Amino acid sequence: MSAQTAKAAEGQSHTKYDRLIAAAKTIPPAATLVVHPCDESSLRGVIEAALAGLIVPTLVGPAPKIKDTANRHGIDIGGLEIVDAPHSEAAAAKAVELIHEAKGEMLMKGSLHTDELMRSVTAKTSGLRTDRRISHVFVMDVPAYAETLFITDAAINIFPDLDCKRDIIQNAIDLFIQAGFGPQPKVAILSAVETVTAKIPSTIEAAALCKMADRGQITGGLLDGPLAFDNAIDREAAKIKGIKSEVAGRAQILVVPDLEAGNMLAKNLAYFAKADSAGIVLGARVPIVLTSRADSLRARLASCAVATLYADARRRRTTTVAA
To answer: Looking at residue 178, which CATH number applies to its domain?
Structure first.
């Protein structure tokens, strides 16, 4: 760890999530459809987020199973609305239907598989598609890094092409700005090296994406790439390589070449750097909170906080346009 990184780590132990959750508590909680919360971790996470004032949940799934889970684990779900659906796929379909009926501002994954939920979200006629490609962002609180770090896409698009990466980047930029992380985020497009070479296709795509930003095809962020991971997050490493850039060494959004690389990077940070990771899906009609059984309570609350802040910004923007 460089002296700069070590200094940044001082006093940074997960305080970024604390500030994020505190910010979300200052706005109205988001009406949230929780899909198939049928195990202890997903159901308890919902209740904790509701008690924290982040969401107003409606539970969508098999009512007897949800109530049995609550009883077995001593979780009080009294007062919460339950919309009965016989199984996980039916719950996902019902939750999407309720979004179309304006019964919720965001979705939250329960104990069903991500692909079950996303099948209903991405259905061509009945889903929640927009003209933007759907993508995932990890919002990471890394104690050794001064910035809140976005990593995208590490969960939805396996081998994104250039057009898909354009949407992945735009989704992340929009989230960063609208959820209140700051203006004009610094976006590092990662590859194995920091020079463009035909031998590594991701370097060519990185250069093309930067030019797309120059021409207004990507807006709101400051892009640079290709950048290797060390050059993106450490100023001394960038300096040694002779890289002069406002992004290098201070990146806030890391765009990975493909899902495998992103997933490994996020998990390395989680287990080696003791980072917390909040997950949110963007590009649909509403934000979607993706949680894992391995998530800490803080990470679950942060996921809800990010989505609530984003949903609030979208709500206020819609109200302004309508006025």
So the answer is: 3.40.718.10
